[in-house]
Amino acid sequence: MTQLPNQRWHIAPPQPEQVQTLVAATGLSPLLAQVLWNRGLDSPQAARTHVDPELATLPEPLAEFPDLGRAVAILQEAIAQNDPILICGDYDADGMTSTALLIRALRHWGAQIDYAIPSRMHEGYGMNNRIVEDCAQAGVGVIITVDNGIMAHEPVQLAVDLGLSVIITDHHDLPPELPAADAILNPKLLPEHSPYRSLAGVGVAYVLAVATGQALGQLKGLTATLLDLCTLGTIADLAALNGVNRRWVKRGLKSLPRSPLAGVQALIQQAGAEESKKPMRPDMIGFRLGPRINAIGRIGDPCTVIDLLTTDDPAIALERAMVCATTNQRRQQLCEQTEQEAVALVEDTPLPWERDRVLIVYKADWHHGVIGIVASRLVERYGVPVFICTQENATTIRGSARSIPEFHVAEALEFCHDCLIKHGGHQAAGGFSVTVEQFPAFQNKLSEFAHQCLAPEHLKPLISVDVQADFDQLTPQLYAEIESLQPWGMGMPMPIFWTPQVRILEQQVLKGNHLKLTLAQGDRVLKAIAWRKGEYFPLPSPVDLAYKLEENHWQGQTTLQLEIVGIRAALPNPSLTTFTHRNRSYQCSFAKAGQELRIKNDQNQVLAVQQGQRVGLLGENRETATTVDVTKPHFYSLIKAAIAALNP
Hints:
The chain is an alpha/beta fold. It has 21 helices and 24 strands. Strand 7, helix 17 (about 370-380) and strand 8 (about 385-390) form a beta-alpha-beta unit. Helix 10 packs across helix 11. It is globular. The two termini are about 40 Å apart.
């Protein structure tokens, strides 16, 4: 028997009555209304605001962030006194875009500004004592951290002792005690319901820059560039696209193709994305622009990206963008090699991850800059929290973690804090350092934590499915509706539909171990792609499939295709019910997100009735079906019997 992916599916329960309320409020199809309901948008007002984020009334940031006024005052005084300001950044896309954003803003206001980003290879993440001491010697008056600092107790205290002002802008999870900074801006300090709660580091930097510009009366001519950088960093950092993020990113995606930033235009050109002036899709940033920026921080010199995003010279921007592109190619090669070695360790050693309920993989010569990416791929492959570790020096091991929904990385690392040199992160990801001597104890503590929150059934990849769809519902109109609800992304993932009993007409393995499929349900035939699933060739037929709907552009033709994310053995339709009416056997089910009742007789004829309609379709398929009046007594009594069978 052909092996299928070892996945766990969670199919959201249909909500036909609530969905109808959202349909009336938004004009969306029942399928998309069900998706919004699944995302927690369970009221007409919430759904309407999601469709048009500009309808939301946002509280002023000064009212939300308790220390924002103090931070603005510190910057106003430093600019007025011509005191040097240093931005302490981070080497990922969020940290580098945050750094560039504040450099552009502070230069615009005439500030003395410089930046420092710690070495990934030699210093690791976050502000450190060396940076503080260098600042003190150089006469710096204010340090602003971006995308870091909330865990930097010792360096912050050193800065305060040396007479420097410190503004922390960060978004990572809070430690039990906060550093002794002059001002701390972190959305994790805000109430859970705050629209600013999901800001990335670059979003916090954007809040600080806009508030300072407003206080100085010098925001004009700056907003568009700041928003472009905020959008780029927010999506590249996989921040949740809800709250204020959705509003700002939706605006930013419209403006990015025409960005006034030379660096953004050079990135777009190098990525081959300049052919369209329509709003940019988040996946263009997530898969093509963002990785070029992140690759520099992982295996290159972050100054390349800062130059790229702060220059106004197109020639310099293009040269830096080319460096980003070639560095990203090297990063891809390193990732492939490291992933192959990691999978070999898991499969051949073997590592007892099912017993420990956490996968810890270690090899001394892996590159620090790519282990986080490989950890994400192993989570996708095995469906278990992954901690990938490599040697930092003779006495220290450095690691990167990625997780599944039921396992909180930051809490796990805090649980192990007595074994660690340093650590940080959030629910889904984190980083840490541990001595060689403490590494076995760290492994044991991680397993202890994992046993507290994970059961054996959690240890396989989770496919979260939104709603059942028939192929005849997968139309260009539905795709256009999905696109109208961009941006989709973290916290608001693309809709995942599923269809049972799909026939596979053709299948082949493509280069890169991808599966290309021709599928059929009823009379409708669609093409599909299943990325990195060539190992399951040949698939049996029929199967149940979970998928995203996308467009395929090829040789001037645009067609719909499915991106397969879940495959399982075809199961009997759980909603299919058999009943008897007037001595005749029928089968019935709800379809189209509960909006259509279907009744099938023993001669394969189907009566399909939409909710609230007085007419239905009767026949073996929709193309040849005839319209019938379902208020006539024999149809009406049959429908009542079917509904009674489905709702005993």
